[in-house]
Structures are given as structure tokens and as C-alpha cells.
Task: inverse folding
């Protein structure tokens, strides 16, 4: 019986880890790996936590859990000196040996030391195979019994039948019997891969055909909607033209030129009238002055005086008669001038009246001209609108014609894709017939009886372990395996059901129960026990709070019973409170992951 005690791993220039070495000791207890991504506003994803799991797997098997290309394993900043060192001890029948694996990339190297002595094999491949022999494990078994990753490992219950059997052989050390079926299985696997490839191709072509048909339907619908929209616009435009025609009929044509000519004529007459009025007023003023002068002169002539006020001669009757005649003559002149003044006033009134009439007429003509200009402007705008709408109608009709003439072009493509799909189906049918023949041959030469006998010996123990962990996980089902490791699942109502009938959380309970049961069987029957187990995002997937509590109880139980180092990788801050061992805090900044002291805020 071997007891493998993993001690530590150190990482340099591996994935997101840079030049600064990240070292982790595998101490007993429930240890939590968490961290913070400073490059993404303190996000907790993409920190490089899963790098720890990948590094252990890489050190042993030379590959990552995510099956990355080697060019992608080296830190993309340094691009060199990628080194992962894994230290462990193996206690075999009381003899303890210390081992040290150093695996490098750029340049690619793998060294193995035992108690300080270099025991590296002649090739990297042989060294890797020897490491697996030392640990009595395959990558599949290690990935499902030591390191569980939510995102990169297919749960046992979700595996295909052949994958399950291969895994079981690794757990129960039954690989020796697989050689009896190697040839037929290789051929079967080759044909199966061909089938998978062809099925993938068929599915791809089928999806392409469905997509093309959907695109064609969508294109036709889009075209119909576009035509309908254009027809609606066309109808609206025609209605607008009718409305404009009605408005144009309401517009009254006015003789603008005639009005303008009339205004010009009035403008020509008005200055003349003003001049005439001025002349009349001047004439009136002249008459008024003359009347005043004659009146003054008349008032100075008097026949009542005995002496002439001018010459001071004594006036006789002859002089008085002359004075009287002069006064009468002046009086007549004054009367004549007054009559002329009256006539002038009459003429002035007539001229002013004519001017007022012409001014009023001019005002009315200007108002009429302004209205005519407004009507003309409106008419011009309506005609412009009508011309624009007619242009739009022409464009709309051209667009409808273009859409009607435009075919989607999908018919020929769909026909070609359909032919490819039929050809792919013919190939699949042929491969399936070949596989059916191989199935018969494989069944004939199989050692089912031999393996079934061995499995039956330990099946009762495994089912008991599985039942124990399902109960510990408070699962709502019972799962029992037969000697062919075909599962029978009974739900809480006592009805048989499929693994895929359950929710994600319920399947997770079954997956974890299988994982813990396999770990126990591996410890009891596989001639090897590991002190180390790692769970990537165990608390971050489908488990609720109660589920997390139950898993923690199991992990703590394993820690207590087997002095095991259980490492849980989590991005939940509250996970740190669950640690009974060490909290390993990683920080990513500028694309590089480093290990830092755990902030106190993470521990509260």
C-alpha cells in the first residue's frame, strides 16, 4: 500500500504567474484559495486561482486540466523559463522516499529526483510515464479522484459508457484486462471517432441548413415588410398630393401687375396733388394778405373829417364824394377778394378730398398686393411640396420594383446544403453499420465475465460508500451500480429516473457522492492513497448554502480521518470563513498573478 503525501508546489512563469514564484504548501485541513483581480475593478474572477490546480496536474502529466497548447501554458509576458516544481513523499510499506519533480517549458525539460538523486528517464515521455507508475494513477483517475474541476472535467455520471469503464479500470486496477480487447477497441474507437466527426459534420451542416432556411424566411418577411411600408408611404404621398391639389384650387389668382401699376399711377399723381394743394394754400395766403391790406387802407379813408389827414387841407363836398367813391371801390375789391378766397377754399377742399381718396385707394391696393404676394408664396410652396412628393413617389416605386426584382439567392444554397446533408447521412449510416459489426465482435471477445466477477467483489462496498455520501449530502435519490457499472437511480418518490432528470444542484450532489466514494475505494482497493484533494469552484457552482455546509462537513471529516489536505478554489469572499486550514490569497495585477498576504477584510 502506497501513501502519497504531497508537500508543496512552486510555480514560475506558468499561465498567469510571472517571474515572482508562487509557492503553496499542502498542509492538512480545509484550505481556501481565493483572490482579487486588480485589472478588472477588483473582480474575483480571472485571478489565476485555477492555475494552482493546473500546475499540480502539469507537474505530473505534462499537460493542463484545460488541455492547453504548450505555447499557451507559458506566461504570455515572459515567454520563457516556465517552471513548476512539485514535492511529495511516498510511504510504501513503511519506507519513505522523497520525490521532487521539476517540469519546464521554453526550454522543455522534465527532471525527477528521489531522495536528492536524479532518476530522470531518457525521454520526457518515459519520465512522465514513470511518475504515473510511482503514483499508481492515470490522468483520468487523478482528475476525478484528486482534482475536481467544475469547468474542465465531465462528471462520472455524465460520461459515456466506455469512458466510465476506463475510469473504473483505473480505480480498481483492472487495466491488465484491457489488453484483451485492445485491437478491437482501437478499431472501434477509430470508427467511433469517425462517427463523432461525421455526426459533428452532419450537425454542423444541419444547423447550417436550418440557419439558411431561417435566413430565407426572415429575408422574405423583411422584404414583405419593406414592400408594405413602401406601399403605405406611397399611399400617404398620393393622399398628400390630393390635399395639396385641393389647397391649390382654393388659391385665388390676383392681377399683381395691375395692382402694382395702379399704385405707381397713384404715386405719380399724389406729388402733383401735394404741389397743387401747396399752390392753393399760397394763393389763399396771398388773397388773405391783399384783403388785409385793402381793409387797412379802407379804414384809413374817412369822409367825416373836415381836414385831410394827409395834406391838412380843408375838405369840401367834392373831396368827400371822392373819398366815398374810393371807399366803395375798395369795398368791392375786398368783396371780390373774399369771393376768390372762398373759391380757393372750395378748390382746396376738393383737391384734399381727391388726395385722401387716392391715398385710401393706395392703401387698399397695397393690402391687396400683400395678400396677393402671400397667396403667390403659398401657391409656390404648395407646388414645390407637390413636386417633392412626386419625386418621393418615383423613388418609392423604384424601391418597390427593386425589392420585387431582388431574389434572396438562398434557394441554390439550400439545395447544395441539402445535398451535403444527405451525403453526410449516408456516411453516418455506413459508419453505424460498421460499428454494429464491431459491437458484436467486441461482445464476443470481451472479458465482461472476468471484470464483472472482480467488480462484484467490491461493488457492495462501493454502493455502501455511495449511499453513505448521498445521505451525507442530503440527496433526494438512491443510486446503485451493477457489475457493469450501469447505474440505477431511484428518486424520492421511488420512481426510476435518469441522472439528467435532476437539477444542476441535485446532479452536483450525485457527482460529489461518486467522487468521495471513488476516493475511498481508491484508498481501500487501489493500493494508493493521497493526502491531497483539490476542488475548483466547489462552492461557486450549483450548491446552495445548505449544500455547502454538507460538503464542508464531509471535507472536514476526511481531514480528520485521513489527515487530508483539502484545497477549495473559490471566488466567493465568504468562503474564507469556512477554512479550517490556510487561506491562500492570490492577486492579479497588470496580467500577473502573485501570492500576497490575505487582507483582513477577507477574513471578517
Result:
Amino acid at each position: 500500500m502506497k501513501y502519497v503525501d504531497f508537500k508543496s508546489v512552486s510555480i514560475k512563469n506558468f499561465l498567469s504567474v510571472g517571474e515572482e514564484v508562487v509557492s503553496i504548501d499542502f498542509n492538512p485541513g480545509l484550505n481556501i484559495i481565493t483572490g482579487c483581480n486588480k485589472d478588472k475593478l477588483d473582480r474575483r474572477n480571472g485571478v489565476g486561482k485555477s492555475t494552482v490546480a493546473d500546475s499540480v496536474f502539469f507537474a505530473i502529466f505534462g499537460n493542463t486540466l484545460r488541455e492547453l497548447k504548450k505555447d499557451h501554458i507559458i506566461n504570455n509576458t515572459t515567454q520563457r523559463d516556465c517552471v513548476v516544481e512539485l514535492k511529495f513523499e511516498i510511504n510504501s510499506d513503511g519506507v519513505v522516499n522523497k520525490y521532487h519533480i521539476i517540469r519546464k517549458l521554453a526550454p522543455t525539460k522534465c527532471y525527477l529526483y528521489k531522495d536528492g538523486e536524479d532518476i530522470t528517464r531518457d525521454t520526457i515521455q518515459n519520465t512522465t510515464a514513470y511518475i504515473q507508475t510511482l503514483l499508481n494513477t492515470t490522468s483520468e483517475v487523478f482528475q476525478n479522484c484528486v482534482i475536481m474541476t467544475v469547468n474542465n472535467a465531465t462528471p462520472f455520471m455524465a460520461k459515456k459508457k466506455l469512458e466510465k469503464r476506463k475510469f473504473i479500470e483505473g480505480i480498481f486496477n483492472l487495466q491488465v484486462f484491457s489488453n484483451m480487447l485492445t485491437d478491437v477497441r482501437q478499431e472501434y474507437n477509430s470508427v467511433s471517432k469517425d462517427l463523432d466527426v461525421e455526426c459533428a459534420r452532419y450537425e454542423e451542416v444541419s444547423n447550417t441548413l436550418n440557419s439558411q432556411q431561417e435566413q430565407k424566411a426572415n429575408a422574405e418577411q423583411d422584404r414583405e415588410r419593406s414592400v408594405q411600408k413602401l406601399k403605405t408611404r406611397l399611399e400617404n404621398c398620393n393622399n398628400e398630393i390630393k390635399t395639396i391639389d385641393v389647397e391649390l384650387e382654393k388659391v385665388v389668382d390676383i392681377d399683381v401687375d395691375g395692382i402694382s401699376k395702379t399704385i405707381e399711377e397713384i404715386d405719380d399723381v399724389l406729388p402733383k396733388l401735394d404741389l397743387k394743394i401747396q399752390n392753393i394754400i399760397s394763393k389763399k395766403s396771398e388773397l388773405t394778405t391783399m384783403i388785409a391790406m385793402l381793409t387797412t387802407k379802407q379804414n384809413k379813408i374817412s369822409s367825416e373829417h373836415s381836414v385831410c389827414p394827409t395834406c391838412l387841407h380843408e375838405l369840401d363836398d367834392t373831396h368827400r364824394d371822392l373819398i366815398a367813391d374810393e371807399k366803395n371801390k375798395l369795398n368791392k375789391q375786398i368783396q371780390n377778394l373774399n369771393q376768390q378766397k372762398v373759391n380757393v377754399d372750395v378748390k382746396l377742399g376738393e383737391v384734399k378730398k381727391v388726395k385722401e381718396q387716392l391715398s385710401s385707394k393706395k392703401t387698399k391696393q397695397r393690402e391687396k398686393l400683400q395678400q396677393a404676394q402671400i397667396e403667390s408664396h403659398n401657391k409656390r410652396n404648395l407646388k414645390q411640396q407637390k413636386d417633392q412628393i412626386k419625386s418621393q413617389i418615383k423613388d418609392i416605386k423604384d424601391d418597390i420594383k427593386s425589392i420585387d426584382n431582388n431574389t434572396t439567392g438562398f434557394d441554390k444554397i439550400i439545395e447544395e446544403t441539402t445535398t451535403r446533408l444527405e451525403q453526410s447521412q449516408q456516411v453516418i449510416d455506413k459508419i453505424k453499420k460498421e460499428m454494429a459489426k464491431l459491437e458484436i465482435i467486441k461482445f464476443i471477445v470481451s472479458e465482461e465475465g472476468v471484470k464483472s466477477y472482480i467488480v462484484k467483489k467490491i461493488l457492495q462496498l462501493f454502493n455502501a460508500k455511495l449511499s453513505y455520501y448521498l445521505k451525507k449530502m442530503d440527496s433526494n435519490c438512491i443510486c446503485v451500480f451493477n457489475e457493469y457499472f450501469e447505474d440505477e437511480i431511484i428518486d424520492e418518490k421511488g420512481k426510476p429516473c435518469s441522472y439528467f432528470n435532476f437539477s444542476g444542484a441535485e446532479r452536483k450532489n450525485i457527482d460529489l457522492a461518486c467522487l468521495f466514494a471513488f476516493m475511498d475505494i481508491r484508498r481501500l482497493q487501489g493500493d494508493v492513497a493521497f493526502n491531497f484533494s483539490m476542488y475548483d469552484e466547489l462552492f461557486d457552482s450549483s450548491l446552495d448554502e445548505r449544500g455547502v455546509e454538507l460538503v464542508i462537513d464531509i471535507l472536514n471529516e476526511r481531514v480528520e480521518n485521513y489527515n487530508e489536505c483539502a484545497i477549495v478554489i473559490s471566488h466567493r469572499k465568504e468562503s474564507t470563513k469556512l477554512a479550517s486550514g490556510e487561506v491562500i490569497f492570490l492577486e492579479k495585477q497588470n496580467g500577473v498573478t502573485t501570492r500576497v498576504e490575505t487582507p483582513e477584510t477577507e477574513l471578517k
Observations:
- The mean pLDDT is 84.
- The chain has 14 helices and 16 strands.
- The two ends are 42 Å apart (CA to CA).
- The CA atoms of residues 134 and 486 lie 31 Å apart.
